[in-house]
Amino acid sequence: MDLLDKVIKTCESRDLLEPGDAVVIGLSGGPDSVALLDLLFRMRQEWQLSLYVVHLNHMFRGAQAEEDFQFCRELAAKLGLPFFGYRIDVTEYSRSRGLNSQHGGRLLRYLLFSEVAKEVGGAKVAVAHHRNDVVETFFMRLLRGGGLKGLSSIPPKRGNVIRPLYDVTKPEVEAYCDQRGLEWRLDPSNNSEKYWRNRIRLRLLPFLEKFSADLVESTSRLVEIVRSENEFLEELTQAAWDQLVQREKDWQSRGKYVFAWDEFTAQPLALQRRLVQMAYLKMGVSDYQLSFAHVEQVLDLVKNQGGQQDLPKGVRVQVSKDRVGFFLSEPGKPTGSTPAKASALPRRQLTFGENSLPEWGLEITLKQCQNWPTPEELRDALAQQRDTWHRGGNWEIWLDAAKVALPLSCRQRLKGDRFRPLGMSGSKKLKDYLIDRKIPREKRDLIPLLCDQQGIVAVVGHQQAEDTKITDNTTIALRVTFRQTRQSPLEA
């Protein structure tokens, strides 16, 4: 079967594409993404596809990386396709978030893909993972002791991200490039055994193929089986969640999920573990599951019918003789941080685009931009907006995207909150800042705070933080606009 026909079959059978779709293509310049671009371009007319090309220069490899950037831009121009190119220091981006450069680069790429997809009107995002990538990921997660979800490896589709090469092997991609006479760029780091994924690909898989010549095919079949069984268990978990989770307003309004102890412990161990994971993910503080060790610590508390456990990203579990509860403590300070007063308004995680927060009387819009005012213009505009905001108008800030630890969220103040107001050299207690601003005590807990994973980004309507401001070195910006949709809680 011709590779084009095989990819079309994958798109149809796995419901990846429909005629008339807009598709953002992640193009690194390597053979996989070049083949993907060529295949989708060949499908473009019959499928009536609108194609857009995105490339990120991670600034890892100096002149070589810039040559990759120019190659991708010229290839897009040759095909007559819109090109979105970015140059961002991924090493610094990752360091500021406590991530390794591989993880940080992946997060940033998908952030850019998502933003371009929204900018062009809700496109799908096509990336060039193929069957060999699926097998590599399976063995990486197997060696780390992953559960069924992890062993499901890379899915053919997740949200708006699609993988048209999912049923294609690496040798098939390379043969296609040769047959089509496609040029592509070589990233030397792909052959470096510094990275664990590369060691899996270069050393482990060739060794295993000595015992199973069809290792890629047989492992791919196993992944399909594991994925379908994991999906079934996820359906069972959701059904158990819907039946068991407590929905009393006073608990839910404070960002809590609660189970009756006897009902929770009546579930099979596999469902208990999955309910713990589901509760954690539904708190909205992380896109990643808890480690096995954390889950077992929670279940030990449940078994002993008492105690509390702090989990990553400011989530706390409390267990009593009759309840198992999950709730949010202060991000970054999960031990001993409690709200300054009983929370009346929940913490809300924000996404790119429009976010409606009716409980706050707000609409918050996040947009990524490549053009922005000068730092001086921004300071002047911020000062002018304060009076406008308190007369019911809008408030807008600009952030340096490389300094923001996404996701952003909106919350009330917490005991011990500190931030560095714009223009200050040191941090200040939020309580002292609000006193200096002559905010009445009864209104201080009702002021929205825009936060990232490291702390306060802005005191909405008053001041943004120095740490995330635009500078002359900014390469990409986030524009955050706040619009009051009714009387603000601050003015109530």
Written account of the structure:
Helix content is 41%, strand content 19%. The protein has three domains: 221 residues, HUPs (Rossmann fold); 84 residues, Uridine Diphospho-n-acetylenolpyruvylglucosamine Reductase, domain 3; 137 residues, Phenylalanyl-tRNA Synthetase, Chain B, domain 3. The protein is built from 17 helices and 21 strands. With 492 residues, the chain is an alpha+beta fold. Helix 6 packs across helix 9 and helix 6 packs across helix 10. The strands form five sheets. Strands 3-2-1-4-6-5 form a six-stranded mixed beta sheet, with helices on both faces. The protein starts with a helix and ends in an 8-residue tail after the last strand. The C terminus is likely disordered.
The gist of it:
The protein has 492 residues and is of the alpha+beta class. 41% of the residues lie in helices and 19% in strands.
List keywords for this structure.
single chain; 492 residues; Rossmann fold; Uridine Diphospho-n-acetylenolpyruvylglucosamine Reductase, domain 3; Phenylalanyl-tRNA Synthetase, Chain B, domain 3; 3 domains; 5-stranded antiparallel sheet
